Amino acid sequence: MAKRAASFICQVCGAAHTRWQGKCDACGAWNSIAEEAAPGDTLPATLRGGRKGRLIALESLSGTSEDAPRIRVGISELDRVAGGGLVPGSVLLIGGDPGIGKSTLLIQASAALATAGHRIIYVSGEEAVAQVRLRAERLGLAGAAVELAAETNVEDIVATLAEGRRPALVVIDSIQTMWTDTVESAPGTVTQVRSSAQILIRYAKRAGAAVILVGHVTKDGQIAGPRVVEHMVDAVLSFEGDGAHHFRILRAQKNRFGPTDEIGVFEMTGLGLAEVANPSELFLSNRDRGAPGTAVYAGMEGTRPVLVEIQALVVPTSLGTPRRAVVGWDPSRLSMVLAVLEARCGVKLGAHDVHLNVAGGFRITEPAADLAVAAALVSSLSGAVLPPDGVYFGEVSLTGAVRAVPHAMARLKEAAKLGFTRAVAPEAKGSAKGNGNGGAKEEPPLAIETVSSLGDIVAGIAARGGRRPPRERQEG
Ligand code: TYD
Ligand code: MG
């Protein structure tokens, strides 16, 4: 076999190049390429040499396999996002900005499991044992029988794990600090992270222990360097939130053992992370009821309805090109809603700056928020206050029609539970043909004002008074 030269690996996307260059052709990152040992050098001897393969027993799909009971952590927000608990032998990657609370969440999870009688090992590559202990003391968890180590060498860690009773969970905080003897490059490089992760994943599968890896996130939201690790692990969770707010959201991005649309909501308190069982109450806690430009959106996150307030501010622009600023929603969706308002409803916003904010730092991913956004925009423009006891949901199409969205009943029930008495929404899907199961149609828990086009909403808000939309003003 020809000798392979060292290769140049982009530390952002993992692409290999034959020579050093300033910019990675694959992902466009600058100054991200570093020289590393060729991947061939990291292959086990059995793959490099011409060893004759051993026969593998092939099995059928229907065979019985050892049932994998999930280990419930007891922190239900975490259990739900993981798909009902941790699966023994699986590897989970948790990513998040520094200081968001990953270590806090994991020490709390470790302590809960240890208290339930499981063997838990927590390896910190970033903090000394004393620091981890200090945090545990502050959280009132110092009594839990978690076994701690401050170590970064993967071979030493795996050797230690093999001793004694099989652990139920091993936490590695963080994967970027780990290094293995088998590769030359420095800790934190793609090759090191990938090789270390590989060894830990192999350990998890072989020993049947659940392993949680902590990963750092870069400025642009990727789990730093080792995007490659995401493909190797069974589940990728991200822990998000911003410094200005106390709550944190755990989201599944990939999960081989569960759904990916669930979220877990936590609040960072002086005593660690507290679960938030009813996030809508938290997001709506500081509502400004009498102000124009706010609408409550009845959204869904996975199986759970979440109500959030959408705030819009529409002001005459002082610039040649009006500003469009969005926090917590997709800017291209905002452009679309603005275009539909202008083209189909005659609401002229071309000379106005538009600021849109999802209250509390929440991030909405569903198109079902279109209607609430449109209502908030028109309310801000016209100065008409929307009814404070109403919620909005529905997807707006380019024709100006308002389309039905899934889970209408769950949204309505959550709104009713929180004291809302009316909803502005499109006609529910399938309501003309019964609700699919042929049974009696479920009675909605609150009054529904059905809208079929965005024009209905605009007319309804304009009729509420305040200043009138500009076009009508011109005509009148
Ligand atoms: P940490 O878990 O160390 O974050 P990560 O591991 O993601 O980098 O969390 C650190 C932050 O959380 C720190 O800024 C202080 C805050 N914090 C609290 O507010 N309350 C607490 O009880 C704890 C332990 C931390
Ligand atoms: Mg940490």
Helix content: 25-40%
What's the count of strands? 21
Secondary-structure class: alpha/beta
The unique ligands bound to this protein are: thymidine-5'-diphosphate, magnesium ion
**Main sheet specs:** 9 strands, mixed
CATH homologous superfamily grouping of the largest domain: P-loop containing nucleotide triphosphate hydrolases
Overall pLDDT level = 85
CATH C-level of the largest domain: Alpha Beta
- As for the number of domains, it is 3
Question: Residue ranges: pLDDT <50 for 5 or more in a row?
Answer: 431-439, 468-476
Verbal overview:
The protein is globular. α6 packs parallel to α7 and α11 packs parallel to α13. The strands form 4 sheets. The chain has a 9-stranded mixed sheet. A 7-stranded mixed sheet has the order 15-16-14-13-17-20-21. A 3-stranded antiparallel sheet has the order 2-1-3, with no helix packed on it. By secondary structure, it is α/β, with parallel strands linked by helices. It starts with 6 loop residues before the first strand and ends with a helix. 27% of the residues lie in helices and 23% in strands. It has 3 domains: 34 residues; 202 residues, Rossmann fold, CATH 3.40.50; 194 residues, Ribosomal Protein S5, domain 2, CATH 3.30.230. Bound molecules: thymidine-5'-diphosphate (TYD) and magnesium ion. Thymidine-5'-diphosphate (TYD) binds next to α4 and α5.
List keywords for this structure.
single chain, 476 residues, alpha/beta, Rossmann fold, Ribosomal Protein S5, domain 2, 3 domains, 9-stranded mixed beta sheet, 7-stranded mixed beta sheet, 23% strand, binds thymidine-5'-diphosphate, binds magnesium ion
